[in-house]
Specification:
Blueprint lengths: L1 H5 L1 H38 L1 E6 L5 H11 L5 E7 L1 H12 L22 E6 L5 H9 L4 E5 L2 H43 L1 H9 L4 H41 L2 H5 L5 H31 L3
Antiparallel strand pairs: 1-3, 1-4, 2-3
């Protein structure tokens, strides 16, 4: 701890390096989590509608609904009866309530036999598998689905995952490189101190220990600072956006701050400690010999 304060320039440079990299990492992580949440909500809007053959009873349709609900890619299944289908038709095409022309049809539902299941997906990439499964029921007449939309969501999610992984790896490598250079400067400043300890019989572990502890402490401090800043900024930005642009509440739901930082905090700590330790260790291996 004395060395950290004694060599405050080196310590501040190291902390600033880790803080900068983890700040960028944290910002990117928050954006990524919310983007994935948006994509997940959009995936659930991708629906599959199942229509049945004439004569299929409501009880059998409900049995199929209960079976389909058990599949992993299914978010929800809604049964739409013939009467509900007719009411939806009237609400869609006669939104102003001008239904006089259809009054006589209420007692003789023209959508008889149009009971269906509306299925929302939790994973749009598995829509084709679900459609194949649904078509295997002999009671099913046909299945309406949007294959191109589901494929687009799957491709976008996959692309975002690859880009996220690449950016995270780049940030970590950059941080290790910068902290290694910073540690190298610190060792150069204390080269005489290291040489004296080696000449009077200090072992490599004895010489290396303080530097490794310094790296760990610096990594810890450098990881806590950006997390605290990002948490404050995230809350403020979400409140500002939702307050100034109410339409955003309709388009997407921001991920709660607790859900983000229950992951971001330990990950940042591990990365910060790892960067401090690895950066110090790699550099010491090259410069501990005198």
């Amino acid at each position: 701890m004395k060395n950290i304060f004694r060599n405050h320039t080196f310590s501040l440079a190291s902390i600033g390096t880790i803080t900068s990299c983890l700040f960028l990492f944290g910002i990117f992580f928050c954006v990524l989590v919310n983007f994935q949440g948006l994509m997940k909500n959009m995936e659930t809007s991708v629906g599959v509608t199942v229509f049945f053959k004439d004569g299929v009873t409501e009880e059998r349709i409900l049995e199929i609904r209960d079976t389909v609900e058990l599949r992993d890619e299914v978010a929800s299944v809604t049964y739409v009866s013939e009467d509900e289908a007719w009411n939806q038709f009237k609400e869609q095409y006669f939104p102003d309530g001008d239904e006089g022309i259809l009054t006589n049809l209420d007692e003789d539902n023209p959508l008889t036999g149009m009971a269906n299941l509306e299925i929302s997906l939790s994973d749009a990439s598995q829509q084709s598998d679900l459609v194949t499964y649904l078509e295997s029921f002999e009671e099913v007449d046909h299945v309406n689905s949007l294959d191109s939309v589901a494929a687009s969501f799957a491709d976008i999610s996959r692309l975002v995952s690859y880009v996220a992984l690449a950016i995270i790896l780049i940030l970590i490598l950059v941080a290790i490189f910068l902290i290694s250079n910073t540690v190298r400067i610190g060792i150069a400043v204390r080269r005489e101190e290291i040489a004296i300890m080696k000449y009077i019989g200090a072992t490599d572990i004895f010489v290396r220990g303080p530097f490794l502890v310094e790296g760990i402490v610096i990594g810890l401090v450098g990881s806590l600072i950006p997390v605290a800043i990002i948490r404050f900024l995230y809350v403020e930005v979400v409140q500002f956006v939702t307050g100034q642009f109410p339409v955003m509440n309709v388009l997407m739901n921001f991920v709660p701050v607790q859900r983000i930082f229950i992951i971001l905090l330990p990950v940042s700590l591990v990365i910060g400690l790892g960067i401090g330790f690895i950066g110090s260790y790699i550099t010491l291996r090259k410069h501990i010999r005198v």
